[in-house]
Amino acid sequence: MNSRTHPHNDGAQGVDPSAARSIVRAVEPPLLSPRALEDRRLIHRNDSTRLQADAFRDLRTRLLALGGDRNFVTLVAPVVPGCGASFVARNLAAAFAFDETKTATLIDCDALRPAQHGALGVDAVNGGLMDYLDDRISEIAPVQYRTVLPRMYLVPTGGVREITGESFSSLRMRSLVDSLRSTHGNRYLVLDGPPVLQSPDARILSDLADLVVLVAGYGRVTTEQIEKAAANFEPEKLAGVVFNDIQ
What we know:
By secondary structure, the protein is an alpha/beta fold. It contains 9 helices and 8 strands. Helix 2 (50-67) packs across helix 3 (85-98).
């Protein structure tokens, strides 16, 4: 599957121990106007740039065809930095959440370049993914936040980390992914992964995913780089390559 999107792309805070015991963020972020959503480069139902929204709907439809009846986990990973994979990941999650029968949870796994909390209006007062994996937070619920989009949730990174591979291969990471998916049969998980050719983290994360979407910055990477990145994943998991025009 080769899909081309033409959308525009584009540290979480420390942990308060008392806040970490809360079940979920108490106050939902306000839903934004269509103009405000577009300023954040988020697709929506009445998107004025229909080609952008339709590209992500098409990608979602193709993944649903590959995933079958189950709710699945999709890893979105760039070939190299600057390909706009975070933009693709959050709008793919948004496309899943368009369906009123489904919810989507986006997990920001790019610990060196966390970006999703800002785009989705999340103030990570309870910490995030890395705080849970470091066992600073004992439960998953406090680090899953509501976003400015209906039916879409975010697990932010929770802090910049230089080395994450061991955390991503841990039992706690697998428990987090399995728990988030299994608690609701209509929940689809999207992992926003780090660059494939920069570290082994994306390959490690692919062990937790059912499908992998590789993001290539259009005109920014070579065919050889794309092939080298694709070779990191099991062929049956690789859903295809998205050629993204915007960083």
